[in-house]
Amino acid sequence: MINTLYLPEIREMLEAKDADGLREFCVALHAGRTAEFMEGLEPLEAWEVLQATDNATRVAIFGFLGQDTQVEILEKGEPAQLAPLIAEMPPDDRVDLLNRIGPPIVEAILALIPTEERRDILRLRAYPEGTAGSVMTTEVAKFPESLTVRAALEALGRHAQGFETIYYIYIVDEENHLCGLVSTRQLVSHIGKPDVTLGELMERELVTVTATDDREMVAAKVADFDFLAIPVVDAERHLVGIITHDDVIDVLQEEATEDAHMAGAIEPLEESYLATRLIRLTRLRAGWLTVLFGAALLTALALQSYHDSLQKIAWLVWFVPLVISSGGNTGSQSATLIIRALTTKEILPKDWFTVVWRELLIGALLGAFLASIGYLAACFLAPTPAAAMVIPVTLVLVVMCGTLLGALLPLMFQSMGLDPALMSTPFVAGIIDIVGIVLYMNVATWLL
User: Fold this and answer.
1) Of 86, 95, 327, 412, which is least surrounded by CB within 10 A?
2) Per-residue pLDDT for 389 more than 60?
3) What SS3 string covers 104-115?
4) How would residue 304 be classed by pLDDT, with cut points 50, 70 and 90?
5) Which domains does the chain possess?
6) pTM across the whole model
């Protein structure tokens, strides 16, 4: 019955106050599937459904609800009902959620949360946004190195529900300094040797990050080493938390979204598209559009300065869109490739000479290819084949300039410590439009 349950049936149970039916609905499927069935409900309706089940199931389903739904539930729900939910959520998830809520609501909820959980929340919230500390969890499986395999397995069995992950067990001393790591696979493989200590099994050379490291760098490190989790330590190598692979996926998605927005000349959104107010969405887009509009005005001024030449040789006007679009498109391609390569660390600013050399060669090849097509088209419209040579010569130069600028500008931003994605492809295209007009008119003046 549950597999074919739709919103009308859920709402019928809500109206009828059918607590047993709602409880069955909450536990019949995986929490993620249950959350999918609830997608069409209003946030407070979803919260009413969750009230019918136990807190552990409630936390599991709540974690799969959309972020906007979670925020609205916290903003409109009763703090006394929400506090147990927040207390049981994974530390990193609850901190991320509370950071999206107004301070008065956060204070009201925190006041009702047990002291230990409240201290943990406040400690994690103290880390700046974008750092490793802001995405780590403190639910870590950590044991002393004197513990035996038998004792470790027994301890895991008792406390596994309280850990974010049990794939890695971190070995610490009495002062919580990180000493090493033992995987669960190692423990299981040594069941036949139950008296072996963790100190004998542990790996001592560990890759770690600090709580103040940039989260994007941390995500890249986890991806490079194919870790399931990475330990976070402080300046004295105390173990303060871990960052798990699911958090890394979230970070990579957020960074990719941010880069995509920047590449489209849009300031990154803090909320989802539908949750962002129209006025704010307009303002976020207006800033870059104003810059690009200014670049377009400069293009118009560049054309106006060659007014006399264009009047004398009117057919040149017909090829202006062809010239500037060829340069802009190739520049945008180069900028996209270089920005992505910088983001994934495939290239570094020190590789600028190699990049420039490669892009110039590519520009020459692409320019020659487009020039051959452009010359054939120009022969039909230009007064003579000799006059038509303006188009292929200009195309080669403009395309080479496009690939050069598209590669250099992101590299310059990276070397200045700025996000190379700020050098958006529309901005690169705007610069090359002006360069293309100047080159076009000067080539025409020289050849004609």
Assistant:
1) 412
2) yes
3) HHHHHHHCCCCH
4) confident
5) 2-126 (1.25.60.10), 142-260 (3.10.580.10), 278-447 (1.10.357.20)
6) 0.61
